[in-house]
Amino acid sequence: MNRDRLKTICDLGGVSGFEDDVVFYLQEELKEIGSSSIDSMLNLYVHRSEAKEGKPVVMLDAHTDEVGFMVRLIRPNGLIEFTTIGGWVTSNIPAHQVLVRTVDGTYIAGIVGSKPPHYITESERNQAPMIENLYIDIGASSRKEVHDLGIRTGNPIVPKAELEFKDDEIIFGKAFDDRLGCVAIVEILESLRGKSLSVNPVGIFSSQEEVGLRGAQVAANTLKPDAAICFEGTPADDTFESADRQQTVLGKGPMLRYIDSKMITNPRFQRFALDVAKKYDIPVQTAVRTGGATNAGAIHLAGGGVPSIVIGVPVRYSHTHYSVASLDDLRGAIALGIAILDELNQEIIDSF
Predict the structure, then answer these.
(1) What are the residue ranges spanned by the domains of the chain?
(2) Any idea of the CA torsion for 59, 60, 64, 66, to the nearest 10 degrees?
(3) What is the pLDDT of residue 123?
(4) Distance of CA 217 to CAs 9, 43, 235, 297, Å?
(5) What confidence tier does 126 reach under pLDDT thresholds 50, 70, 90?
(6) Fewest beta carbons less than 10 Å away: which of 75, 175, 205, 344?
(7) How far is CA 306 from CA 58, 211, 225, 292, 296, in A?
(8) CATH number attached to the domain at 68-159
């Protein structure tokens, strides 16, 4: 696995609707794989040069966007009010650094501020802060100064954090949901270069998952795949569930879910994937999720229906500035994706 590329992909800023930097980087990285195109939603489509007409199309999906913020207004004193993009717990936001994207695409660092403890009331002390009471301080003292830096209402804001390799297996960083999925697809497509398959896998790096699975809906209706595999940085439950209830644990392999709030996983495709994992001796976990969703929730409803599964890399502390993940789990997701593509053919897909 290319660790420098992993770090770059995770560190790049790409809030929902503003995934440009991530998309253009991925397109350049994958230029030797085959042809590529970008639609008006900022979905990136990557077709292998080895693709043969008439073979079933398998959509390999990962979303490029991350949760973040948007400038709502600039106060006369230069402080920036903002709103959230994607799902945040507001108590996780204050006292962290962020990067505000300017009109020319550069980034200005700031700190999320809130009322100091010396001034809060007893009732305020016992509740999470409201987003309306938070602001970003970039060190400016006037609205004009902020404008002169190229910051306007509507500009995106990303968490300021860099990926760290804690040891050979553990990484800390932002946007693991879902840059780890993006990395998985890049590694899979590179591993399959020059290889003949019974299916045509197409890499789809989709936009705006965090605000409603929007890019994937467009991409699935454009591509019209015969089957789909979604690669996702999926929330781990091993820090708060008791051992007998844990279903998504760091270091125990990728997780395949049976259900979430937007999809009941195709049971035949799920069984096939689990059988492949067993055949290739790839450790996996399974889970039943009552909340959350992935792009598979949109993809499986495209056209006449698309058999879909989700291969999730466990991620602790998703939707915060710093998450934790295992490289071994990521390697497992990559290995499982390659193995499934090796085993798939038209007859098997028809059986789904």
Answers:
(1) 3-66+174-351, 68-159
(2) 100
(3) 81
(4) 23, 10, 22, 9
(5) confident
(6) 75
(7) 10, 22, 7, 20, 9
(8) 2.40.30.40
Give me the torsion for CA of 226, 235, 317, 179, rounded to 10°.
-20
Q: Could you read off the pLDDT of 168-226 as tens digits, one per residue?
A: 899 999 999 999 999 999 999 999 999 999 999 999 999 999 999 999 999 999 999 99
Return the structure tokens found at 56.
Answer: 């079933």
Dist. CA 239–CA 39, nearest whole Å: 39
pLDDT tens readout for residues 26-77: 999 999 999 999 999 999 999 999 999 999 999 999 999 999 999 999 999 9
CATH 3.40.630.10 corresponds to the domain 3-66+174-351: yes
List of residues 6+ apart from 213 with CB closer than 8 A: 262, 293, 294, 295, 297, 298
3-state secondary structure of 231: strand
- Asked if 145 is an active-site residue, the reply is no
136 pairs with which residues across the strands?
80, 112
| Distance separating alpha carbons of residues 90 and 69, to the nearest angstrom | 12
**Which candidate in 19, 66, 187, 209 is catalytic?**
209
Read off the tokens for 151.
Answer: 């910051």
User: Whole-structure pTM over 0.85, yes or no?
Assistant: yes
Convert the pLDDT of each residue in 275-323 to its tens digit.
999 999 999 999 999 999 999 999 999 999 999 999 999 999 999 999 9
